[in-house]
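#lab-general

N.A. 3:47 PM
ok so I finally got the sequence cleaned up, no stray characters, all 131 residues accounted for. can someone with queue access submit it? mine expired

B.Y. 3:52 PM
send it over

N.A. 3:53 PM
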Amino acid sequence: MKLSSGLNGVMMTQYRVKFDFVVYFTNGGSLSAQDFRLDIAQSDISDDALAAYLIQDMRLLMAGRVDISNKHILQEPHKRSAIDSDSLPQATVELTQQQLSAAELVTLARHSPVRIVAADGESYTLARLVH
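B.Y. 4:20 PM
back already:
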């Protein structure tokens, strides 16, 4: 296990997540991998945040549903800087499966960003609005 120097020289444990995934594209097809690893900043990450991280990191377009399985958190040295998972969507809403109003979507995004897969296949991130 490798420790890195954090703020004020305090040594911090580094984490990685190992998982299997299938990304289903809204325009057809899919992408899958087994034992894939990504650096994470903390000792845990939700499946929705991990899916958003994966989509962002791989710059995937037209990404719809993402199935995550066999997720394990490992104490391993980072291969690069981990992203801040707090800024990632913590939930995914597929508008092809459920119809929500704009007000309902904004309510969902009140506390953390939400990834929205629109009926036309486009994927958006909705973060809380500031007055």
